[in-house]
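Researcher: Please translate sequence to structure tokens.
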Amino acid sequence: MSYAKLRLDDDERRIMQVLRSAGARSRKQLAADLAMSASKLTRLSSNLLAHGLIEECSSSEPMTPGRPAVPLRISPDAGYSVGAMLHRGLMEVALVDYAGGVIAHSSQPFDDPDPRIFAARVTASMHDMAIENRLLGRRLLGVGIGVPGSSLSPEGNRRWTVDSLAAWRGIDLKTLFEEHIGHRIWIENDANTAALAEYYVGGLMRRCSTAVVILLGHGIGAGIIVEGRILRGAMASAGEIGCLYPTNEPRPSTLDLLSTLRDEGCAIHSLVDFDEVTAGYETVVDRWVRRAAKQIEPIINWGVAWIDPGEFVISSPLPAPILQSLVDHIDFGAMHIGDHCSEMPRVSVSTLEGSAATIGAALLPIHATAVM
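Model: Translation complete:
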């Protein structure tokens, strides 16, 4: 069966969404969750079982007379997908199974601006990782690539990328990467892929249906999830909050911190061995954290007003202690919150250790089968 040709109807997608958000559920529970008749639920779940998208699993409930309820869950063996992301001086590749579990993740030094060289390295890495994890012959659903930069087209395949990826600008990246990688490709802004990872893997979907993920990467961007869907906008550029900062002034981003450290004499050029290279520059990092917190405060305030999210997540390839310090320095008392908010939404730090954008890129082909 080819997943590219698989077409789930709306009710089948609803079943998949409940199983992804709530975990294993019996047919009786699913029918109640979806206000669906038992006979219809049985018919639809049988189709999903036949396609291998869901599976039956053992029940933790006590045995009762008659046929015991057998829970259904998303099948991790239904296939896998690949995600790739380029940070300054570092390339990441991740493999994710259909249930959203991270199979493998790798990072390696890489600083070539040519997208064709990037495609060749991704192809080699995903092949090696597939062999290492015994995935050859398994269904590969596709490859997602997170790209930093605003969209130049409604479908988002051409982008105005950051300066370090100037060779990627204006190119139809989907066509180029499909030609050189040889599999179906999804192109998405890196903040949106980070938001997908936080939603599916970071547990957001179990806490709220609407959230904002603020990504501090090449620049600063936001991925917005509304009722389980990425908010992309008319030109696939929703969440381009970097444009709110003057171009001639520093902005809160990973590259900005690296630049700040270099200005203070630190010989740092990438995120490789960050802690070792920055030893002795803790006061510089602390100064940057305090300034970045002040710069992010209005973004959170505006996000509350415009989106009304249940949670904000701060995501970045920077070490988690730096991000936590940044959150701790945000002055919520200085914000103007409307009467609709009884309290500020939770602001958390990503638990995905800087890999959110890459893992989320891998989730793009899976998300495409899940949303209605």
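Researcher: Any highlights?
Model: Residues 282-306 form the longest helix (25 residues).
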